[in-house]
Write a structure and sequence with these properties.
about 475 residues; alpha/beta; six-stranded parallel sheet; five-stranded mixed β-barrel; globular; binds S-adenosyl-L-homocysteine; binds iron/sulfur cluster
């Protein structure tokens, strides 16, 4: 048996391979420029992202690579020379949406046969989906799963120089360090600290499409955190499918110690993390949240169901009681903590009584918000072939009931901010009214306000909360 030691690391893509891809970026830039493009007339890239924050972060890496190759971002796919679609496979709906969008790019290719179309992300990590693209979407040049993202320069070069279509899947899912990124907003940063998942919840496709857990080294993470803060990051979210099992695979520090080290870096920033699994919601992590001022007091801790029978069938590894004990600890240690969750309704075999236990869980915890989903069978997962698949009408009815209860709880919970003045980060100008802005603070809910002092996006401001409804808080600048 391998002993865990400080020096253990997850498998990494060799530096020489990353360097090879980097050099290809230069070659591609020259090739593009020899075709009439140039620094003043960069070809456009368009990236469409589906799915979770992991995909958002991967898309920023794709954008970084595209930028390095001489492309510039465009907002209209019809004006692009490179289209990348970053797909999700978590529910059938996500796949259908991606496939339908990919279908519309046929017209773009008809008009501009030179456009390169690549499909990445979790959907194409499934062989049947990669085959479907190969056979039914002839205008797609290549696909690459999340473990093959670092090969993007090679795939683009191949397509650009008239090579055959390629459909690449990674067998190693090794960690790729040193890829460039192009952040959407410099003040808001994703920081992946680990990849993959070992949990195999019986409904979930993620372990099959993102591989096993691989933690980055604390050194690499701290270096990236420093660079992000120096670049103006004010709101950093540590990412991982199972972010709070960070370090277990390499025997390094745990997420609590890592977050404390990041908090010790100089700079005016706040730290978030997602997504946590209840089995790893340790006392150390709760203590870090309670003690470190830079850690936002918001814990996203998906429970999925309130019924022990269903939790067992989901392979979640905790009972409703155990979950509630963690919640109690959080509430007593972190003053005014905001709690959010993911819930699945209509899991195979879910009875009315099971569902009632989920409703009871919502009432007991009093989440600020939940993300709720109707169970969607995923090919290759154990739950997809379980007995007792729930008819759509039943799931939909339960879903509505769940939302209605949560809306009441959210509306009531949000009232606690009214009358307080809180420091919040201005994130975006309203699309319909340039004088209105949205900011974010400890609450997972956005705060809308009249920007009568011209606070720029990316800056902090003090807001007195004057009212709150189900989804939003409303503030006045102080
Ligand atoms: N790693 C995270 C997030 C996983 S995906 C976690 O463990 O919580 C985000 C959410 O999608 C899950 O929490 C779950 O609620 C939901 N989900 C996953 N698979 C699903 C499926 N097959 N059908 C419906 N919802 C699903
Ligand atoms: Fe999916 Fe479970 Fe892993 Fe979350 S912990 S990604 S729900 S298998
Ligand atoms: Fe979807 Fe993959 Fe994220 S399946 S939810 S994009 S990890």
């Amino acid at each position: 048996m391998k002993m865990k030691s400080e020096n253990m690391t997850a498998p990494h893509i060799e530096e020489a391979e990353i360097e090879r891809q980097r050099l290809l970026c230069d070659t591609i830039e020259k090739e593009l420029f020899s075709r009439g493009f140039g620094k003043e007339r960069r070809p456009g890239y368009y990236i469409q992202t589906f799915g979770c924050q992991q995909n958002e972060a991967d898309s920023e890496r794709m954008a970084g690579i595209a930028w390095m190759m001489g492309y510039r971002p465009v907002s209209d796919p019809a004006a692009a020379e490179l289209i990348l679609i970053n797909t999700c496979a978590i529910r059938e709906h996500a796949e259908k949406k991606a496939l339908s969008i990919i279908g519309t790019y046929k017209h773009v290719k008809d008009k501009n046969p030179g456009v390169i179309i690549g499909v990445g992300g979790c959907m194409v990590a499934q062989k049947h989906r990669a085959d479907q693209l190969k056979n039914s979407y002839p205008y797609v040049n290549f696909s690459f799963d999340p473990g093959a993202l670092h090969l993007l320069p090679e795939l683009i070069y191949h397509a650009l120089t008239g090579g055959k279509r390629r459909f690449v899947s990674s067998d190693t899912y090794a960690v790729a360090e040193g890829l460039p990124t192009h952040q959407k907003q410099s003040f808001k940063a994703w920081l992946s600290i680990m990849y993959g998942c070992n949990n195999f919840c019986s409904y979930c496709i993620v372990p099959y499409v993102r591989g096993r857990e691989r933690s980055r080294t604390p050194e690499a993470i701290l270096e990236e955190a420093r660079r992000l803060i120096d670049g103006g990051a004010r709101d950093i979210t540590l990412l991982g499918q199972n972010v709070n099992s960070y370090g277990k695979d390499i025997g390094s520090m745990d997420i609590a110690a890592l977050m404390r080290q990041i908090c010790a870096l100089p700079g005016d920033f706040r730290l978030r993390f997602m997504t946590s699994h209840p089995k790893d919601a340790s006392d150390a992590l709760i203590a870090a949240m309670a003690e470190e001022e830079k850690i936002v007091p918001h814990f996203h801790l998906p429970v999925q169901s309130g019924s022990d029978t269903i939790l067992r069938r989901m392979n979640r590894k905790y009972t409703a009681q155990e979950y509630l004990r963690i919640i109690d600890k959080l509430k007593s240690s972190v003053p005014d903590v905001s709690l959010t969750s993911d819930i699945i309704v209509g899991f195979p075999g879910e009875t009315d009584a099971d569902f009632q236990e989920t409703l009871d869980m919502l009432a007991a915890v009093e989440y600020d918000a939940i993300f709720s989903f109707i169970y969607s069978p995923r090919k290759g997962t154990p739950a997809a072939t379980m007995e007792g698949q729930i008819p759509r009408e039943v799931s939909s009815r339960r879903f509505e009931q769940l939302l209605s209860l949560q809306h009441d709880i959210s509306r009531a919970r949000n009232q606690r901010f009214v009358g307080r003045t809180i420091r919040a980060l201005c994130e975006e100008v309203s699309k319909t009214d340039p004088d209105k802005m949205t900011a974010r603070s400890d609450s997972p809910r956005p705060i809308h306000f009249e920007n009568n002092k011209g606070v720029p996006v990316g800056e902090y401001c003090n807001l007195e909360i004057v009212s709150a409804d189900t989804f939003s808080l409303y503030g006045e600048l102080k």
